[in-house]
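User: Show me a protein chain along with its predicted structure.
Assistant: Here is one chain, sequence first, then structure tokens.
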Amino acid sequence: MMPESKESLRKILDDYFSRITYANDCFELHKFLIQSKKTYLNQMNLAPAFFQLTYSSLLQTVIIELFKLFDPKADTGLYKLVEICRLNTNLFPDKKEIGYVDCDTDKYFVDKVLPVDMNLELAECRKLLKGITEELECLRKWRNKFYAHLDSESRNNEDMLIKSYSLTYENIKQIFEVAKGICNRISVLLDGSANTCQSSNVFDVDNLFTKLTENKHETV
């Protein structure tokens, strides 16, 4: 659906930000649980099936949600967002302010005002997408082989997929950075706002590990 106003485009952007934040939170929590094995293995072994299912499901969510965001054919993908903006450049200001915040007063000062060429800005977005072509191809293979086609051999052997398709945590992080970069570039051009795409309480499972550790000490 094409936006009819600046406000409707903002709603579309906020939906993209919500999706990226959700997927990024799943990714960060997945990594945190994997790393927690080094410190809280005994606690996690109290419910091994639960934690195994949890971090595997989190990774599955990450792969599927990222694939949706970067699917060139999707009506709700980033390629479509760039195209929507191309067809609605009239919704964007034709100038942007470059400024700074004074450390003593916390006041914002405009240093200069520059013209905005939306065609050039959107070309930069396409360049970002093109720059991760190999990573997106690996993502597509992971999604097809690991999840979409119910390949049990691959599903139970993540190491094989990492070796075969070379999709590492760093690759996934890079894909997230492109997603956030494109949406924030468009968002700042639209009304000057940006989004970190990360929740503040994503690691609150650490409270559970701490409590389990305290209970263990109390029963000894």
